Amino acid sequence: MDLYIALIHHPVVNKKGDVICSAITNLDLHDIARAARTYGVKGYYVVNPLEDQKILAAQVIRHWTEGSGGRINPARREAFSIVRLTDTLEDAIERIGRETEMPVHILATSARKNDKSVTFQEMRDRLPQIGCALLLFGTAWGLTSELIDRADYLIEPVKGCGDYNHLSVRSAVTVVLDRLLSGNGH
């Protein structure tokens, strides 16, 4: 099974529910790349159509893949080797489809449960039959309802020990990957 992830910066919603484009953060680039590489993800797509954001992200990626950062820290270079920048989710799906020559199944995540949600165990059981999957994570206040509706599967929200439920996306990525891929899911 080929698993890819996409960090969606557009379209996502803000706390008012408005569709926005959020900013790329250095921490998300680093921490998600490291988590993705740790769990054997084939590629990590950062989806943002804004040129200034892509220029900034490309500079960070180059520093760790081609520059002094990668020479000093080869493990970080390896993690950043799977990071790809793209304008749209459609671009990412098309690139993955060309690379794998398989249909790309969309898995979405959300902090809000809905009728379409499947448990981590159910998704873990289905993954071997899927072939190729792209797991979407939303920035800001999450994916738009259109992206969630478009997904083949919506994975249940990450639940902690109490009522508080507002993880950073980089933390949520690590938890979701662990629950889906390590066999230690809840």
Can you describe this structure?
This protein is an alpha/beta fold and 186 residues long. The protein has a single domain (2-181), classed as 3-Layer(aba) Sandwich (Alpha/beta knot). The protein is 44% helix and 20% strand. The chain has helices at residues 26-38, 51-65, 68-72, 74-80, 89-100, 120-130, 145-150, 169-181; strands at 2-8, 12-13, 19-20, 43-47, 83-86, 105-109, 117-118, 132-138, 153-155. The strands form two sheets. It has a seven-stranded parallel β-sheet with strand order 5-4-1-8-6-9-7, with helices on both faces. Strands 2-3 form a two-stranded antiparallel ribbon. A hairpin with a 5-residue loop joins strand 2 (12-13) and strand 3. Helix 1 (26-38) packs across helix 4, helix 1 (26-38) runs parallel beside helix 8 (169-181) and helix 6 (120-130) packs across helix 8 (169-181). The radius of gyration is 16 Å and the shape is globular. The two termini are 21 Å apart. The mean pLDDT is 95.
What labels describe this entry?
seven-stranded parallel sheet, two-stranded antiparallel sheet, 8 helices, globular
